[in-house]
Each structure stands twice: as structure tokens, then as C-alpha cells.
Design brief:
The protein is α+β, with helices and mostly antiparallel strands. The chain has 15 helices and 18 strands.
Length: about 425
């Protein structure tokens, strides 16, 4: 394991690894789901935690440049302490590193309003497989200058280069924020209300759906007393007048679709408790079966297919015989299923894998994607091929061009055909992908 403290340190480590044919696995905070930071044999884990400096904050231009190890909470705390009136809104739940979020193209609960890392990363400093340092993008709000290399590296999961610095957009802290919880008779009604709210032009900040199983888990874990029914967690942002208008319009629409028991949280403490309960969803799920671990999958589909996709996915859960709560970011068609299994139980693991594959199949049949935000890592390599077909060959060609010796996080995203044996000089070196 290596602990770089600068871009130059990263380049030096990469150079040594390239000479000796050793794989490099970038590591941020380890909060990823699909095993993208799990090292294989003959690999150096590049822990970016010491590269945690905030290099610049440009208040009037509303951007910041940070080292890859800076976490989103660290950046937001700094912005608050400096009284900038700005924040970084991409919120995957965990206190992930900005570099890791860029590498996995993360998003989270606020994506319906602010977008994902794809929309919020303006530029990168990347160390390539041959140790060259490349800077992509910049601080200009738009550019038509050459290939969009920033977007190439955002979401590449460390397979094309090591992200060392990130320039991100910042957003104004809203004047007023209000949140609410409301229950629905079924998932279809909840999703239909969301589609109507979005179509009506209400600028929602967050719209989260928790199914009845997840609500039971959240109540028990967080000491809440919400109805054990499909439930929406909502957030409105803007001026005081705007927030009031948004809440009224959304509430009227949702009531028409059967929403009941609206509970409002306008104060900071109430709102924080509400969203803490939502972000604790994974731990709440595990608490349903003490000692269990979660086999997590996520998919994303067009909003018009979301209710159907969730219905079919819940049917697959029932057929699997596993306990698997469901929750998601319904404002953009993305949801997660957490299958609870006991460590060491091979039968349950096999069932969970089949369930995950089936949910991906359902999403792809409906014009969706195998991953809305978790990425591919080790876990969804075959799903990627099912989704993109011949497009994977284009990805492989890019990988070979930028990392011909395949030392950059091998065995992740793509299953390259020649990553068992490569040569540095005249010496053959065995390189095994982590899942082989």
C-alpha cells in the first residue's frame, strides 16, 4: 500500500509500478458498492487519504479545486466555515472522497436537482499509466475544445488513470429548506405522483422512495413511527416563498394519488433527523437480520417504466425467498435493492446473485441501465456487456490505448482478454484479475 501526499508522489508510484508490472488500485474511502477498490494479487493499493487539501475556492465563480482525498463533508464544512454561502450538493450518503465520487460517477439523493458528478466535475488532474500528468477541462463553464477528456475519466473507476485533483461546481446555499414524509397505498401511486410533480414543473430538491419493508427497517433502527407503507421523503429548496409554493403544489398533487399522513420538517434538527434516517437505510436493512451482510444492486430506468420495474423487481425478491428492502431516488428513476444474507452461506449468496442479475435483466428490458450510480467494479462486468454489446469493444480499445500493460485497476469494469500475462521489457509478469 502506498500513501501519496501530492500529484508528484502519485506519478512516482505509478512510474515504479509500470516498470515492474505491478497493478495499481486507487482507494478513496472504501464506500463503493461494486468492489472497484478491492485489490487483486500483485497490486499496490494507492490510498489517497493523505491528499486531502482544498487547493482553491473561487466564491464568485462558484467552483473549487480539491485533492482527490478530500471528502464531500470536509469540503462543505470548509465552505460553511469560510462563510462562502456555497455548498457542494452531490450527496451519495456516505462521506465519500471527491476523487472516488468522480471515479465512480456518483450521485445520490440530490441528483434530481443538481445532477450527478458528471454534471458537476469541471476539470481533473489525472496520472496516466505511463506516469504522465494530464490536466483535463478547466474552470470555464463551457468549452468546445477538443475531446471531452474530463467525461472520459469521470466514471472510469481508476481503469484509465489515477484521479489526483478535481475541480467541481459549487452551488448557492438555499435561503429556505423544507422536508416532508408521506405514505401511499402502493408503489405505483407513489411513482405516478412523482411523475406528475416533475411534469408540473415543481423544482424538487430530493424525492426518495422507501418501500414498506424498508420503512419497517427504518422505524425500528431510527426509533420512528411512520406508516409501514411505500413512502416518499421530499425536500424543497429556494426562497421562503418558493418553498411554500413548491410544498403546496406537490402536496396537492400527491394527495390526489392517495398520499396520507404528511409530516413536515422545516427546522434544521427535524430535517437532519429525517434525512439521517434515510441515509441510515442500509444499516437499518442489516439490522432486520442481525449478523447479516447486504448484497446490494442498483438500476435506473425511464420514469415511465419505474413503477413497473419496481413491481417486477419486488416479484423477483419474493420468488428468491430473501429479505430485500428497496429504496431509491425516484426523481430520476434510480433504485436499490439490498438482499440480506448470512456470511458464509453459499446458497443465500447464489440466490442474491441470481436476484441481482434478474433485476438488471428487468431494467434492461425496460430501456434502463445496469447501474444508475454504483458503477461496474467487479460485480457488473457481464451486465455491462449485456447493456452495451459492441460498445464494450470500444471501451476495451480505449483501455488498451491508454493502459497497454493493463496495470490500472485490472479486472474492474472490463474483463480484458490478455490481463493474465503482460511483459515489461523482456520479463513476463503474472497479473490476475481479482475475480478470476
Amino acid at each position: 500500500m502506498a500513501f501519496p501526499e501530492s500529484v508528484e508522489d502519485v506519478a512516482s508510484v505509478v512510474q515504479v509500478c509500470a516498470v515492474h508490472g505491478v497493478a495499481i488500485v486507487p482507494y478513496g474511502t472504501g464506500t463503493g458498492i461494486e468492489g472497484g477498490a478491492v485489490p487483486g494479487e500483485r497490486a499496490v493499493t494507492l490510498d489517497m487519504g493523505r491528499m486531502n487539501r482544498i487547493l482553491s475556492v473561487n466564491v464568485r465563480d462558484m467552483d473549487a479545486t480539491v485533492e482527490a482525498g478530500v471528502t464531500r463533508m470536509q469540503l462543505n464544512a470548509h465552505l460553511a466555515e469560510q462563510e462562502t454561502g456555497l455548498h457542494f450538493p452531490v450527496d451519495p450518503g456516505a462521506n465519500a472522497s471527491i476523487g472516488g465520487m468522480a471515479a465512480t460517477r456518483a450521485s445520490g439523493t440530490a441528483a434530481v436537482r443538481y445532477g450527478t458528478m458528471r454534471e458537476n466535475v469541471m476539470g481533473l488532474t489525472v496520472v496516466m499509466a505511463d506516469s504522465r500528468v494530464v490536466r483535463t477541462g478547466g474552470r470555464a463553464r463551457k468549452s468546445a475544445s477538443g475531446y471531452d477528456l474530463t467525461r472520459l475519466f469521470v466514471g472510469s473507476e481508476g481503469t484509465l488513470g489515477v484521479i489526483a485533483e478535481v475541480t467541481v461546481k459549487l452551488w448557492r446555499v438555499p435561503e429556505a429548506v423544507s422536508a416532508a414524509v408521506c405514505a401511499f397505498p402502493d408503489v405505483a401511486s407513489a411513482v405516478a405522483s412523482v411523475m406528475e410533480v416533475i411534469a408540473s414543473g415543481v423544482p424538487m430538491a430530493r424525492i426518495e422512495l422507501l418501500d414498506e419493508v424498508q420503512m419497517r427497517a427504518v422505524n425500528a433502527y431510527s426509533g420512528l413511527t411512520y406508516a409501514e407503507a411505500p413512502t416518499l421523503f421530499l425536500e424543497f429548496q429556494g426562497t421562503t416563498e418558493e418553498v411554500g409554493d413548491q410544498a403546496t403544489r406537490a402536496g396537492d398533487i400527491m394527495t390526489r394519488f392517495g398520499a396520507k399522513g404528511f409530516e413536515w420538517a422545516a427546522g434544521d434538527a427535524e430535517r437532519d433527523r429525517l434525512w439521517e434516517a434515510r441515509h441510515d437505510g442500509y444499516h437499518a436493512s442489516l439490522a432486520m437480520q442481525p449478523g447479516s451482510v447486504g448484497y446490494v444492486t442498483d438500476v435506473c430506468v425511464p420514469l415511465t417504466r419505474l413503477a413497473e420495474c419496481i413491481r417486477e423487481s419486488k416479484k423477483a425478491v419474493d420468488e428468491s425467498g430473501l429479505v430485500a428492502p428497496l429504496y431509491g431516488h425516484v426523481g430520476d428513476g434510480n433504485f436499490h435493492v439490498v438482499a440480506l444474507i448470512q456470511p458464509g452461506d453459499g446458497d443465500q449468496l447464489a440466490k442474491a446473485r441470481r436476484l441481482g442479475d434478474r433485476i438488471v435483466e428487468i431494467a434492461l428490458e425496460m430501456g434502463g441501465t445496469c447501474s444508475g450510480e454504483h458503477g461496474i467494479g467487479k460485480g457488473k462486468i457481464e451486465s455491462l456487456r449485456k447493456e452495451h454489446g459492441g460498445g464494450v469493444e470500444v471501451m476495451e480499445a480505449i483501455k488498451k490505448a491508454l493502459d497497454p500493460e493493463e496495470i490500472m485497476n485490472p479486472g474492474k469494469v472490463l474483463r480484458m482478454t490478455n490481463n493474465r500475462m503482460t511483459k515489461v521489457g523482456n520479463r513476463p509478469l503474472w497479473m490476475v484479475a481479482p475475480d478470476q
